[in-house]
Amino acid sequence: MIFGDRGMLTAGELRALHPVLREALLKLAGTDLQALSPGKHEWDGERVFLLLQEMETAPKAEKKLESHRRYLDIQWLIEGEERIGYTRKSASHAVCEDELANKDYALYDDPADEMELTMKPGTFAIFFPEDLHRPGVCGEAPARIKKAVVKVDLELLAN
What we know:
- With 159 residues, this protein is mainly β.
- Helix content is 14%, strand content 47%.
- Strand 2 and strand 3 (48-56) form a beta hairpin.
């Protein structure tokens, strides 16, 4: 997992990232995300695409941890505040719903070792397949958020 703020990414930090991730972050930073409508926006067919989401956050108990196998997630908050739970996947994490083959996600029962990220506008988190993450969690009370989720096919990182 990589967590950052678009304003804190230095040229050196960007150079240290895989070129595909660097390009995706730069494209996110250079896109007028406020002007996009909710839904899927193709950047490179099914290899790289953006999902623009508007949703209501919810209490942690109403959200499940998830992981992906084909795509990594770059989650970029545009409006509001969101909490995202995070932990590394291990054998002790029990899958409660496996849709990896059909829809590229699996859901997990709650672990004891989960940490929490606080997302504010302009912050981003990159989640790899071994990163369980619980997006859409509220702080004090549910609130409306707008976020961009860029899906990057992991095969692009192998080159």
